[in-house]
Amino acid sequence: MRAKITYLVTAAVLVFYFLLVGSRGVMLIQSGTLLTVTFGVAVLILPVIGLWFLWKNTQFVRRANRLAAELDAEGGLPVDELKRTPSGRIDRDSADEVFARRKAETEKSPDDWRCWFRLAVAYHDAHDTPRARKAMQRAIALHDAEPARA
Questions:
Q1: CA 118, CA 140: separation in Å to the nearest integer?
Q2: What pLDDT is recorded for position 148?
Q3: Mean pLDDT of the region 92-112
Q4: What does the pLDDT read at residue 119?
Q5: CA 114 to mean position of chain CA atoms
Q6: How far apart are CA 125 and CA 32, in angstroms?
Q7: What DSSP string describes the chain?
Q8: Measured distance CA(29)–CA(31) in Å, rounded
Q9: pLDDT tens, position by position, 63-87
Q10: What was the pLDDT predicted at 87?
């Protein structure tokens, strides 16, 4: 729950910032000189890109959470079996061991979104965020491609 609140607060702050920057861009455009109009248009592009990125990221998180809820209902969420150091950090060898199992599971069933979801979690635990995101995107795509359940 804390992560959701943090995400919502961060998103709200970003939207406020984008609105503030956008209003400055409009003010520059209203000045009417070639230089200020050019800068105003450039300033307006940044909030548009930021809002698009925020929207895409929010969609990704919602879809990943939907998969997590479905997997949890099936009893298939990965269990946290990682060893930790006294400070609470994940032990690297433990993460590598779990990752190897998840990768082998995914190679055996490359069309199963559940395997890709668990692989994404293993990548995340190994602190490989780009690959975790790609694996989760693959899980989402495979899930969306499944025929609708009655």
A1: 12
A2: 64
A3: 88
A4: 93
A5: 17
A6: 53
A7: -HHHHHHHHHHHHHHHHHHHHHHHHHHHHHH-SHHHHHHHHHHHHHHHHHHHHHHHHHHHHHHHHHHHHHHHHHT-SPP----B-TTSPBPHHHHHHHHHHHHHHHHH-TT-HHHHHHHHHHHHHTT-HHHHHHHHHHHHHHHHHSPPP-
A8: 5
A9: 999 999 999 999 888 877 777 878 8
A10: 81
Amino acid at 83: K
Using alpha carbons, select from 149, 146, 150, 136 the residue that is nearest to residue 63: 136
Residues in the chain: 150
- Write the single-letter amino acid at 47: P
In angstroms, what CA-CA distances link 81 with 76, 94, 100, 114? 14, 8, 14, 18
Nearest to 115 by CA among 126, 102, 127: 102
Q: What is the pLDDT of residues 5-64, one digit of tens each?
A: 998 999 999 999 999 999 999 999 999 899 999 999 999 998 999 999 999 999 999 999
Token readout for 147 is 């025929």
The residue among 84, 94, 85 whose CA lies nearest residue 122 is 94
